[in-house]
Amino acid sequence: MSLAGNILGISELEVERVDRDKGIEVYARPTKRPLCIYCQHKGVRIKATYQRTLKHTRQGNQVMTLHLTCPKYHCPQCRRYFRHRFKGVRPRFRASEAFRLEVFEAHDGGVTQRKLTLTHSISPATVERWYQNHCRLRRSERANRPCPKVLGIDEHFFTRKRGYATTLVDLKRNKVFDVVLGRSEASLGRYLKALPGRDNVRLIVMDMSETYRAIARRYFPNAMIVADRFHVIRLVNQHFLKAWQDHDPEGRKNRGLISLMRRHEWRLSPEQRDNLGTYLNAFPVLNALYEAKQRLNRLLLLKTLTRKRAERALPKLLRLIKQLHASPLHRLANTLTSWLEPVTAMWRFSKSNGVTEGFHNKMEMMSRRAYGFRNFENYRLRVLTHCGWDGIINRV
């Protein structure tokens, strides 16, 4: 590569002159003739030349414009014609790939379209079109990716008009696999039927949703369902707080007591434990429910157990659930009985939907920055670009 090529980022260029006024105007031509693109013959000849003008990066606050003298070649061996091809410049494009990528990264980093029209001398429609093209380019690189073996499924809100969307996350690589509009089997069934490699899924992490469990059993027959630990613990706390409301409505309004009740017992200070004990002693039934909740949480928080340790812990959980059946927490006991296999599967694995919830926060920030999305495909394209891809694509 020549010195000019090193500076400009385009190989084999000879700069003829540079004019500076409102911008940087660079006039250049190729330094040598290429091989025939059809038969790889060396002895091509120049049939004609034409001028090509395109934007190429920025130097300081000025846009660099390249005026390239482009030869049109003729091959005497195969008798075919072709135009000179520059590395980093696509045919019939008015801007180099470096310039388009620069605009994409600036807009992706938060620079508005209006600001880019002033700094890069392009229209807002061009900024949006280039941004969408780069997003599709990134998305196309993962179009044939295999279905992940460890899959996380959860829902998130899209718009009031379109409702909710379902997020599928590769929990092994911590990347969003796909986003599908809807959260019912009727809206997801067609997509899941056409999903390639769904028989390879071995583990599915989800909250305690009957709809998602039915979908997982039908469309992922080889996968084990694992309940998300956060949602299970939250469900236990919700049922306990409801029972507290029935026993002492006035005490349930005390924000200090609510904070103590929600915490795990082993995270309370001695003073906090004494204050809570003084209150619970006045309500024997509530005190018994609190102790049962703490024992249940200790069992549910176990993880990465061996098979033997899980078999030893299972009878304790079953006895505790049996006790809850005869208490005000009987609805919680029914739910845990129905979800016993996914709940006990939490003991063997450490995967959870915490990564999925983190992606939902990022999706919400993307929607806020865009002042909302009406087109779901545009929203899905941006989510897969920012949450489902590693690295930057550099393609000629």
From TrEMBL:
It holds the Pfam family DDE_Tnp_ISL3. It comes from the Bacteria. Residues 151-383 form the Transposase IS204/IS1001/IS1096/IS1165 DDE domain. NCBIfam families: transpos_ISL3. This is ISL3 family transposase. It comes from Kineobactrum salinum.
